[in-house]
Amino acid sequence: AATLFAANAQTFPGSKPITFVVPFAAGGPTDRVARDLAEAMRKSMGGGANFVVENVNGAGGTIGANKVAKAAPDGHTLLLHHIGMASAPSLYRKLQYKPLEDFEYLGMVNEVPMTLIGKPQLEAKNYRELETYIRANAGKLNIAHAGLGSASHLCGLMWQSAINATEAMTTIPFGGTAPAMNALVGGQVDMMCDQTTNTTGQIEAGRVKAYAVTTAKPLTGNKLLKDLPTLQQAGLKGFDLTIWHGLYAPKGTPPAVLAQINAALKKALKDPDFIKKQEGLGAVVVTDNRVEPAAHKAFVTAEINKLKPVIEAGGKFAD
Ligand code: MLT
C-alpha cells in the first residue's frame, strides 16, 4: 500500500477530484469558506486539479469530521472545519474520532468574528434592551444553532451562561446556520449567534437585527459592524470568541501529498481575490505561521485545552 500511495504522490492529484468535506449544510459560513478556498486552491494548483465540495452535516460537524477521519489517506478527501475541531472533544463523551491523532494538519485558513443577531420583529432595539427583554420573556424565547459542536452552539452556550439565561431560552438545532438563518429571517426563531461570513449580508439587507460582536475588540475596520458593541463593552467580562477554520486530511496521507496541498493552500491564502472575498465577509485570512501544519496543530491543541474548562463550566469563561 505504501508504494501505491508513494506513486500517487508523484501523480497527485491526477484526474480524480479533491473533495472538501464541509461538515455543515450548504450555504452556511463553513460552506462559504470551503467554496471560496477550493476556487483559490484550484487556481494555485495551476487549474489542473478539480475540487468538489461535499456537505455532510449533522451532530455539530462531528459526522462530517468523522467521515474524513475514516477516509482513504490519498489526499482526495479533505476536511474544512472550524473551532468545532477543538470544542467537540469536550462536548461528546463518545467522539468517533480523535482530533489530534486521526488527522494530518494542513494549515489554518482564517479567523472570523461572530455577531449576536435577532429576528427582524424582535422588540429589543439594541443590546442594552436585549437582556432586559430576555428576562421579561424568560422561557418564551429560543436561540438557533448548528448542533452540539458548532460555532453557533458554542457562542450561544457562552453568551447564555454569561447573562445567566441558560434556562431562559430554548436552543433549536439545525443542520447548519444557513437553514437556521432562513428560520431567523422568517421569524420562526428569535435569536442566533453566527459568523459574520453568514450574517453580514443579512444585517446589511436589514433582514435581521444585529446586537453585538463576540470579539474582544470592536470591528472598527468593518464599515457595517464597526458601531456594534463587543459583548465585553456590553458588560460581559472576558467574553472573547473568534471562530477559525483549518484544513485536514486523514492520518497516513503521504507526506509528499500533504506538502503539495499545504503549498497550494499557502499560495491560495495569498490570492488577492480570496483575501478580498474573505474581508468582504468580515473574515481575516491567516498570514502567520499557523499556515504551517505543526503550528496549526499546536494552535488546535491549545484551543482544545482552552475550551475544555469553559465548556465544562457550562460555557462560563474563567474569571
Ligand atoms: C456553525 O455554527 O458551526 C457554523 O456556522 C455552521 C455552518 O457553517 O453552517
From TrEMBL:
<protein>
    <submittedName>
        <fullName>Uncharacterized protein UPF0065</fullName>
    </submittedName>
</protein>
<dbReference type="Pfam" id="PF03401">
    <property type="entry name" value="TctC"/>
</dbReference>
<comment type="similarity">
    <text>Belongs to the UPF0065 (bug) family.</text>
</comment>
<keyword id="KW-0732">Signal</keyword>
<dbReference type="InterPro" id="IPR005064">
    <property type="entry name" value="BUG"/>
</dbReference>
<dbReference type="InterPro" id="IPR042100">
    <property type="entry name" value="Bug_dom1"/>
</dbReference>
